[in-house]
Amino acid sequence: QVQLVESGGGLVQAGGSLRLSCVASGRTSIIYAMGWFRQAPGKEREFVATINQSGGLTNYADSVKGRLTISRDNAKNAVYLQMNTLKPEDTAVYYCAAGLTASAWTSAYNYWGQGTQVTVSS
């Protein structure tokens, strides 16, 4: 089992920045691909970004390209999401997830965190 804990969410004005962190514990001997997803009220969970096990491959949703950056530190069992130039439509609960394949599909991930709220005011 792997436990994932997100942090770093909060309230920020449009145009501002936040850095989300996700730390894994438990069975961390296996290095997983990691993803960030988000879910706004009344909407389905959607893909934001993913990174493979080595960190050499990343992929982003079109809506966040150029503004959000995913990275990881395997020595710390951590993955990060640097969020710049935030927009009100970025408001959502952000979840990190771990799986064997870097993918935009939620079904590819075996473990999920509890989420952290990001609110962007206009």
Question: How would you describe this protein?
Answer:
The protein has about 120 residues and is mainly β. It contains no helices and 11 strands. The strands form 2 sheets. Strands 2, 4, 5, 6, 9, 10 and 11 form a 7-stranded mixed β-sheet that branches. A hairpin with a 4-residue loop joins strand 7 (about 70-75) and strand 8. The model has no long low-confidence stretch (mean pLDDT about 95).
Q: How many helices in DSSP terms?
A: 0
Alpha-carbon Rg, integer: 13 Å
* Helix/strand order: EEEEEEEEEEE
- Overall helicity: under 10%
**Class from secondary-structure proportions:** mainly beta
Specify the oligomeric state. Answer: single chain
What is the average of the pLDDT values? Answer: 96
Low-confidence stretches: none
What is the fold's blueprint, element by element?
Layout: E1 2-7, E2 10-13, E3 18-26, E4 33-39, E5 46-51, E6 58-60, E7 68-73, E8 78-83, E9 92-99, E10 109-112, E11 116-121
Parallel strand pairs: 2-11
Antiparallel strand pairs: 1-3, 3-8, 4-5, 4-9, 5-6, 7-8, 9-10, 9-11
In short:
This protein is an all-beta fold and 122 residues long.
Protein traits:
globular, mainly beta, four-stranded antiparallel β-sheet, 122 residues
